[in-house]
Amino acid sequence: MSITVNLYYTGKNGSARAFAEEMEKSGIADAIRAEEGNEKYEYFIPMKDPETVLLIDSWKDQKSLDIHHASQMMSEIAELREKYDLHMTVERYTSGTDDVLDRNQQFIRK
Predict the structure, then answer these.
(1) Cβ contacts of 46 within 8 Å, gap of 6 or more
(2) Among 91, 104, 26, 28, residue whose Cα is nearest residue 58
(3) What are 64-103's pLDDT values in tens digits?
(4) Rg of the chain taking only CA atoms, in angstroms
(5) What is the pTM of this model?
(6) What is the DSSP string of the chain?
(7) Average pLDDT, the chain
(8) CA 20, 21, 26: angle at the middle one, nearest 5?
(9) Strands 38-44, 3-10: pairing kind
(10) CATH top class, domain 3-107
């Protein structure tokens, strides 16, 4: 069962975007993407809130996510969050069963 975590980083004066840019430029984001079990690690900027950055972070299972949380990268990320004085809101989702996905196909335009 896949796990997706939406993290909303909010700051002031462009600090959330600067954080995401530093995560990308420093190679931390790529290192996370290369971790076993990582399925997605992407930043987005909400159109109605330029002071927030959304991170969509997906993992194969809870074990993969736990290993990531225990890694040295988490302390590096925590330091960057402090540097940019970011506050977070978190949403967590698990993948649906195949029958739920099949029933929703009619609403997906391909």
Answers:
(1) 52, 54
(2) 91
(3) 999 999 999 999 999 999 999 999 999 999 886 555 556 6
(4) 15
(5) 0.86
(6) --EEEEEEEE-STTHHHHHHHHHHHHTHHHHHHTSTTEEEEEEE--TT-TTEEEEEEEESSHHHHHHHHTSHHHHHHHHHHHHTT-EEEEEEEEPPPHHHHHHHGGG---
(7) 91
(8) 105
(9) unpaired
(10) alpha beta
